[in-house]
Design a protein that fits this description.
mainly alpha, Arc Repressor Mutant, subunit A, 81% helix, HTH-type_TetR-like_transc_reg, DNA-binding transcription factor activity
């Protein structure tokens, strides 16, 4: 069963990246995986369920990459900011741009309501609470700050992904995000 799921996710990820969600037919996906439509329905319910599985996989890979970036920083606060900036920069990567930031919201709805975003919010809240407890940043409601940072970075990434000039938009987004986030560290 895990092998079947893996084949379908790999085929879907490749097809969604190359042709987009709308351009990837279920028949093509299952043929690429060497499986039947029944296998897709059995394992994922439908094409949307398969897209969610692909997004979950990409999200997990992004989270691992971001952790490495954050761990390299001089301080936990700078690590958090570096992770957010790297997340926004990932909007330039074609696979992330198309699957996660363009097709995902169009098909699955508001990304801030996706399970992976809720996990990210909980982790960010924990980290901000720790930064406040350690005196690294002034007292602030950790959940409120986490929601605002997550929302700002998500919307910046969506803006970059949808922009006709993503490189230019990225520069604007990173500058504004850093200025907003640095305000949390000021007394």
């Amino acid at each position: 069963m895990a092998e079947t799921k893996g084949k379908l996710v790999r085929a879907a990820r490749s097809a969604f990246a190359a042709r987009g969600y709308a351009g990837a037919s279920m028949d093509d996906l299952t043929a690429e995986a060497g499986l039947t439509r029944g296998a897709l329905y059995h394992n994922f319910g439908d094409k949307k369920g398969l897209l969610q599985a692909v997004i979950d996989q990409i999200d997990a890979e992004m989270a691992a990459r971001l952790r490495v970036i954050g761990e390299r920083a001089e301080t936990p606060w700078l690590g958090l900011l570096d992770e957010y900036e790297a997340y926004i920069e990932m909007a330039l990567e074609p696979e992330i741009q198309r699957i996660l930031l363009l097709d995902g919201p169009a098909v699955l709805g508001d990304p801030s309501r996706w399970p992976s975003q809720n996990a990210c919010l909980a982790e960010t809240t924990r980290r901000i609470r720790s930064l406040v407890d350690d005196g690294a940043i002034p007292a602030v409601d950790a959940e409120a700050a986490a929601r605002l940072l997550n929302g700002a970075s998500l919307h910046a990434a969506l803006w970059v992904a949808a922009s006709p000039e993503p490189e230019v938009t990225l520069g604007k987004a990173l500058d504004a995000f850093r200025r907003l986030a640095e305000g949390l560290a000021r007394p």
